[in-house]
Amino acid sequence: MTWVALAGFMGTGKSRIGWELSRRLSLTFIDTDRVIERVSCMRVADIFEVYGEQVFRDYETEVVRRCLRLDEVVVSTGGGTVVRGENRALLASRGPVVVLEAGPDTIYKRTRRTKRPMLEIGDPRERITKLLGERTPLYHDIATIRVSTDGRNSSDVVEEIVQKLWEWAGREAI
Ligand code: S3P
């Protein structure tokens, strides 16, 4: 296994789990939001504020496309990467894609202290429920495997991911 992507809603643990998974598999960890911030010299929240969501999405697609050419990496994507069909097709073409899942209460607790532009419109709990409803079928669409992070410690989650990935790789090899 030399290339793995992580997808899932904000607050499902993609960055933390992605980093630990990269250690476990001896791969390099890449977080697409951090790449966008490095290249643009701006925080994600500022890109949203200054240029708007569509410009951020264009940067995101460009970074996803470039990540496909890499090897020996775990790529953690932003929660909204799946919204564009092009991104879903790109990620699915390289795969496997690990989708992390959590319930709306957990997501609210994990996101409330950090700046998340997509949750700043109206009541954050309602916004989470709405966006989660819209995006869940998209996460399911690209998931090679799905793993819940709700109320679990990261090492358990990483072990479940590794086990499921090995099972998947075994089936692919047949
Ligand atoms: C977004 C999720 C964020 C970041 C941006 C947009 C979204 O990433 O890419 O704020 O649309 O869900 P995280 O999932 O890492 O918070």
Largest sheet: 5 strands, parallel
Q: How many helices?
A: 8
Compressed to H and E, one letter per element, the order equals EHEHHHEHEHHEH
Query: What structural class should be given to the helix and strand makeup?
Result: alpha/beta
Task: Describe the 3D structure.
This protein has 174 residues and is α/β, with parallel strands linked by helices. 59% of the residues lie in helices and 13% in strands. It is built from eight helices and five strands. Strands 2-3-1-4-5 form a five-stranded parallel β-sheet, with helices on both faces. The protein is globular, with a radius of gyration of 15 Å. Bound molecules: shikimate-3-phosphate. Shikimate-3-phosphate binds at residues 10, 14, 33, 44, 78-80, 116-118.
Notable characteristics:
174 residues, alpha/beta, 8 helices, globular, binds shikimate-3-phosphate
Helix/strand layout:
Blueprint: E1 3-8, H1 14-25, E2 28-31, H2 32-40, H3 44-51, H4 53-68, E3 73-76, H5 85-94, E4 97-101, H6 104-111, H7 124-142, E5 145-148, H8 154-173
Parallel strand pairs: 1-3, 1-4, 2-3, 4-5
Helix pairs in contact: 1-8, 2-4, 3-4, 4-5, 6-7
The structure holds shikimate-3-phosphate.
